[in-house]
Every structure is written in structure tokens, then in C-alpha cells.
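Budget justification aside, the reviewers requested a transparent look at the raw inputs and outputs of the sequence design task funded under Objective 1. We therefore reproduce one unedited record. The lines immediately below are the C-alpha cells for a 154-residue chain.
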């Protein structure tokens, strides 16, 4: 498990909480959905990652790579590019900017949210940063890491 920190840049809030990267955590779609669900990360979906910087100010997000490979940029334009592949899991605290850089044709991720919380999608539109900076501190810390089930960010 690796952790990465990203600071607010005036456009993307990011978070004081670290991004958690579980490499090669789990590969099976059914097993991933069940593991996330058993650790109270619900409201799951299967798709890709938007090819533009965006973040969620009302919920934390987990992204589990079901198939393929990709590169994502975390933390906004000045952030870090990370190569991800089948079995990798990213836990993104509310406010963490993320963007797809490239992907293989078979790339798919499963996303989910703590206790199935509703989520928003914000980009770089005027006023979003200030609004997000007010919302993010109110997002509750999940009780469990979606992969290990251990307490998270405590």
C-alpha cells in the first residue's frame, strides 16, 4: 500500500488526507464488488475515468481497475502521473483531482463510495473551488478501507 499527498492549488482542492494505492489488490469483478460492499463502499458502477481533471466534493471514491492498463494524473495539472493496471485500487479522498491520460482498449474500472454516499462531479468552473472547500471538511471519514477493511485515514 502506497500513500500520496496533494495540496490545494486554487482550482483543485485535493485533500489533507492521502490517496491510498493498493497495487494488485484484486482482479475478479464479482470479488471486487463484494469486497467493496462488505467494507461498506457501495453505489458501485463500472466504466472508465473521465479524460479531464475532475473531483468529488461530497464523497470519497474508490476506483478498482478491473481490466487493462491506464495512466491517470492525480492532484491536478501539477500533480503526479500514475500507471495503473488490472487489480490496482485507488482510494481518493474527497477533493482529489483525477484525470485519465491514456488507456488500453480493454480498460475498465469499478467505482464506489462509502456507505453509497451520493457524489458530485466538479471541474475548474468559477466558484466550484470555494464551494468545494466548504463541503469537503463535512464529508465523513469512512469506517473501513475498501480493500483491507481496516480503519482508514485515522
Amino acid at each position: 500500500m502506497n500513500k500520496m499527498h496533494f495540496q490545494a492549488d486554487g482550482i483543485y482542492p485535493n485533500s489533507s488526507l492521502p490517496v491510498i494505492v493498493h497495487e494488485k489488490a484484486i482482479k475478479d469483478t464479482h470479488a471486487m464488488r463484494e469486497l467493496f460492499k462488505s467494507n461498506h463502499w457501495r453505489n458501485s458502477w463500472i466504466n472508465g475515468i473521465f479524460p479531464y481533471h475532475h473531483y468529488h466534493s461530497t464523497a470519497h471514491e474508490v476506483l478498482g481497475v478491473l481490466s487493462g492498463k491506464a495512466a491517470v494524473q492525480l492532484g491536478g495539472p501539477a500533480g503526479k502521473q500514475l500507471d495503473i493496471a488490472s487489480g490496482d485500487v485507488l482510494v481518493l479522498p474527497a477533493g482529489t483531482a483525477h484525470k485519465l491520460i491514456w488507456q488500453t482498449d480493454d480498460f475498465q474500472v469499478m467505482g464506489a463510495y462509502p456507505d453509497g454516499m451520493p457524489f458530485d462531479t466538479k471541474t475548474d468552473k468559477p466558484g466550484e473551488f470555494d464551494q468545494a472547500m466548504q463541503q469537503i471538511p463535512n464529508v465523513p471519514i469512512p469506517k473501513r478501507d475498501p480493500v483491507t477493511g481496516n480503519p482508514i485515514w485515522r
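The two ends are 15 Å apart (CA to CA). The longest strand covers residues 15-22. Computational costs for records of this kind are itemized in the attached budget.
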